[in-house]
Amino acid sequence: MVSIGEILKGRHTGKVVELRGWIYRTRTVGGKAFVVIRDATGILQATISRDAVSPEAFQAAEKALIESAVVVHGKVVADKRAPGGYEIQSDDFKVVHFAEKFPIQEDLSEEFLLDVRHLWVRSQKMTGIFRVRHTVFGAVHEYFREHGFWEVQPPMITPAGSEGGATLFEVDYFGRKAFLTQSWQLYAEALVLAMEKIYYVGPSFRAEKSRTTRHLTEYWHAEMEEAWVGMDAVIRHAEGVISQACALVAEERVEEIVALGRTPEFLKAVKPPFERMTYDEALKVLKAKGIEVEWGKDLRTLEERALTEGKSKPVIVTHYPRVSQAFYKARDPKHPDLVLGFDVIGGDGVGEIVGGSERETDLETIKKALLEQGEDPKAYDWYLDSRRFGSVQHAGFGMGMERLIQWICKLGHIRDAVPFPRTPGRFSP
RNA sequence: GCCGUCGUAGCUCAGUCCGGUAGAGCCCCCGACUGUUAAUCGGGUGGUCUGCGGUUCGAAUCCGCACGACGGCGCCA
User: Are residues A345 and A241 in the same domain?
Assistant: First the structure.
């Protein structure tokens, strides 16, 4: 049994092989059937001639519809007339399963493809993205483990939120209200005083009806937290993990990214340091571009696009105004109006890939910040123990895995960065 | 939360403004063709026009309500 990928590399030319896969396209011309077969490694044409196989085999080749599962036996030859340059001249052709009429043809609407997502995942485009996703996830784990971080998991079911504004999915916990996690933040800050350098890659949930090309309600979050360091150290880790993921994809997923419109050279060039600017500097850059932003307002899609326009690496913005920032972010000792927080902003409309900060260590300051945001400090009492028992400087960030994949693969919509996307309008299939 | 677009055959759409009883291409089925590349050519099957209500002799078409989806903004990763 051989794979199509091996045949396309010329490893079996001239040999008689057996190949199994699914029908991608069929065409018949008189006494010849051309059956294009796909497997997990590529697509290849099998030629079935009436005179070369049994009548049953020929009839099966003529009748089998797209996505039928087949086993083909024959000689591999190089032939310019075949798509891809190679084909199998069959001496036997068996259908393992005759598929029903496959609903996916040409001319498909985005909406229909989402309805039949469970079938669309078989497409060349989707499987290519999934392979890149595999590589990106591997790179993230490798990066943190190589740098001495412990992988540790927070709970998914939580008693309350961590970031005030963001909405939570409510679950019925034996008659009591519980919520799906939107960040490991509170748990990370408890664990970082135990393990010092920790990371986690897992799902996060946001019940926000964000109808954009870069929001999912369920997404994979890579989060890290480190003790005894400030914002600068974790910015370097953010640059490091992103560049390592890009480098590994450039090395191992060349075919896939080229098909998606990215070159390996582009990804290889994504090396630290990234361009860095403070929020105040960003406002000046925007003003020069004719975009006025009132100080204190967060950077919106429009502004993020303007900042990354023409840039081949992500851009880092630091020192945001304290107003409307999460309560656990540390204020800048030099400028109490600012927080020691940062975002890593990707181009091509992907926007914020990473958001992070140094964390506030002072108990009273955090309590005050909670009150300012309308939260009851009593609900956070267990979390505040991290500021009662050996509170030390620490910092961390959260990275949207699908946003990173979207940026690497140059995807127009984040939902294609995950096999079965969850968006406000859809949670099926 | 705000704004916009759309819903007709398995799929992609026309028909809706100007009401008269449902169309095209692809898919699929049958036939022809021994090198096709989304093959081609001939024939055929296929529809509660999203749902409910209203106006009308008559509604896919006009009016109202509902449902569903897609797109953009805000918020975030």
Answer: yes
| Range(s) of the domain holding residue A48 | 4-97
Give me the CATH number covering residue A24. 2.40.50.140
Q: CA of A415 vs C1' of B61, distance in Å?
A: 37
Assess whether A84 and A162 both reside in one domain.
no
A414 touches strand B (CB under 7 A): yes
**Which two tokens mark A317?**
């913005």
A162 plus A284 within the same structural domain: yes
Instruction: Give the ipTM of the model, two decimals please.
Output: 0.85
Provide the positions of strand B that have an atom within 7 A of a protein CB: 1-3, 10-13, 25-29, 32-39, 68-77
A309 in the same domain as A190: yes
Q: How far is the CA of A81 from the C1' of B33 (A)?
A: 19
Are A184 and A271 found together in one domain? yes
The HSE-up count of residue A120 (CA atoms within 13 Å, CB side) is: 22
Q: Do A373 and A313 belong together in one domain?
A: yes
Distance of A148 CA from B20 C1′ (whole Å):
78
- For residue A222, the domain's CATH number is 3.30.930.10
If you measure CA to C1', which residue is closest to nucleotide B29? A63
Edge-first strand listing for the sheet containing A218-227: A150-151, A197-205, A218-227, A394-400, A351-358, A341-346, A315-318, A275-278
Whether the CB of A413 is less than 7 Å away from nucleic strand B comes out as yes
What does the pLDDT profile of chain A (429 residues) look like in tens digits? Answer: 899 999 999 899 999 999 999 999 999 998 899 999 999 999 999 999 999 999 999 999 999 999 999 999 999 999 999 988 999 999 999 999 999 989 887 768 888 899 899 999 999 899 999 999 999 999 999 999 999 999 999 999 988 755 554 588 888 899 888 889 999 999 999 999 999 999 999 999 998 888 899 999 999 999 999 999 999 999 999 999 999 999 999 999 999 999 999 999 999 999 999 999 999 999 999 988 888 888 888 888 889 999 998 889 999 999 999 887 888 999 999 998 999 999 999 988 899 999 999 999 999 999 998 888 888 888 889 999 999 999 999 999 999 999 999 999 999 899 999 999 999 888 888
> Which of residues 195 to 234 on A have a Cβ less than 7 angstroms from any strand B atom?
206, 208-217, 219, 221
Residue A429 CA, nucleotide B6 C1', distance (Å): 22
Q: Which of A357, A156, A140, A173 is nearest to A249 (CA)?
A: A140
Classify residue A249: in a domain, yes or no. Answer: yes
The integer distance in angstroms from the CA atom of A66 to the C1' atom of B30 is 19
Query: Could you say which DSSP state residue A156 is in?
Result: S
Inter-CA distances, A106 with A25, A42, A69, A112, A177, Å: 12, 19, 21, 12, 46
Letter for the amino acid at A371?
A: L
